[in-house]
Amino acid sequence: MDFKHYLQVLKDNTPYDFSNYSDNSIKRRLQKVILDNGLTIDELLDKTQTDKGFVERLVEDITVNTTELFRDPEIWPQFYEKLYPALKGKKTFNIWHAGCSSGMEVYSNMIILNELGLLEQARIFATDISLGMVRQCTNGSYRYEFNKKQLSDFEDIIKKSPIQGISKIDFNKYFDFDLENDRINIKDFLKKKVEIRQHDLVQEKVPFYNKFDVIFCRNVLIYFNANLQSKIYQMFHNQLYPKGSMILGNHESLTGFYKTKFSKNGPLYTKTNVFHFKYQ
């Protein structure tokens, strides 16, 4: 299969452009879509051009939506060792979860903010390219069995490394547990707090007028090629307030020119100056 030809067909007939994603990653995922759906190449091309529902499902399949509540639990105390002093004195602050997937990171972060007494002044925004993920984030309902170990691991971590003195969280304040149906349901006061939109980091302008104090974009850019990564770093730099922070995944890091525009402080990359890039 000439997957680059297919990506051009996808770009020409849908709102989605994956041409600057990592070649190996996108090729592997397209091959899996073909195999899982029992399609020939001609059938794949035809459905891409005529079936909007199929395209939305395909976007979910070829984008990476792996996430968990309190994913990488050991990293959260490190985040707030650095973030708390910068946020605690602000009357309001803005946080953007770019590439939020199903929203579990968003709600994990909001729980910590609430425990720290910071949620009321926070404005939370979340975006993802996948309409299905946006809907799941909005619904805030997840599998219990999939997440129960993460909750337990996070509890163990904060006992050893409290987050600004917080060493225990009563999750019943934030979740309705429906064990019979294997569900964890986010309580309404958290769901109402976050503004969620479908958004394509690659092609679309930022869908919010405000700038941000913190941008989470964890385990997203690793699937982009170097040119596309640079474009996104530029956009994030423009959207951050001076001294605002960007948070990347454990296996993601800045290279080249952008090392001069952010200072690394543990897992945070803090904007070092107000030099403005023109984002296109």
Outline of the structure:
By secondary structure, the protein is of the alpha/beta class. The chain is built from 10 helices and 10 strands. It has 2 domains: 3-62, no CATH class; 73-141 and 189-271, Vaccinia Virus protein VP39 (Rossmann fold), CATH 3.40.50.150.
- Rg calc: 19 Å
Beta percentage is 15-25%
Q: What name is given to the CATH topology of the largest domain?
A: Rossmann fold
Strands across the major sheet, in which order? Answer: 6-2-1-7-8-10-9
Beta strands, count: 10
The number of helical runs is: 10
- Uncertain residue segments: 275-280
CATH superfamily of the largest domain: Vaccinia Virus protein VP39
Principal-axis shape: globular
* CATH architecture designation of the largest domain: 3-Layer(aba) Sandwich
Question: Would you spell out the secondary-structure blueprint of this structure?
Answer:
Elements: H1 3-13, H2 23-37, H3 41-50, H4 52-62, H5 76-87, E1 93-98, H6 104-115, E2 122-128, H7 131-139, E3 141-143, H8 144-160, E4 175-178, E5 183-186, H9 188-191, E6 194-198, E7 212-217, H10 226-239, E8 240-248, E9 262-265, E10 268-271
